[in-house]
Amino acid sequence: MKASVFIATSIDGFIARPDGALDWLPDNCEPHGYEEFMDSVDALVMGRNTFEIVLGFGAWPYGKKPVIVLSTTLQELKTPQDAVCHLMSGTPQEIVNSLAQRGINHLYIDGGVTIQGFLRAGMIQRLIITRIPVLLGSGIPLFGTMPQDIRLEHVATRSYPSGLVQSEYLVGD
Questions:
Q1: Is the whole-model pTM more than 0.85?
Q2: Residue 128: C-alpha distances to residues 2, 60, 73, 79 (Å)
Q3: Which of 62, 64, 66, 63 is closest to 43 using CA atoms?
Q4: CATH superfamily, region 2-12+32-134+143-171
Q5: What separation, in Å, do the N-terminal and C-terminal C-alpha atoms of the chain show?
Q6: pLDDT digits (tens, 9 = 90+) for 90-114
């Protein structure tokens, strides 16, 4: 099982404003690999908060791609029409094991708390981080405290005319 992250941050490392707002993200930017990345994944895993933010986008952005929503408190999900969503709880290892048994080979891990938990558990192999040229000053950080250093191997850095800078890393053992 492979688990990857594809996420945008402000230059100062925030993935959202303190209230979860994403209004600082560019409305339209040049292609930067997201579609190709989405084509490579079998399912998404995100926390309930991220799921609720995505619901506010209007149109469901994931088509028929399965979305696994992690929650220890929800009993059922209210999902958009035609969305394929499943509610799960458990440790990152339990989630990965369960999804691997279902034949899923590549997961897209999304949302700050979820990414941090999967990183701490050693379940993420690849990070693609796109830095947006804005300073927010406060917000929801991509990375929180870790029990130990997590070594990354730099794969590539790409810059785009809009000012986006995207770096890709492999997560070390």
A1: yes
A2: 14, 22, 30, 27
A3: 66
A4: Dihydrofolate Reductase, subunit A (3.40.430.10)
A5: 15
A6: 999 999 999 999 999 999 999 999 9
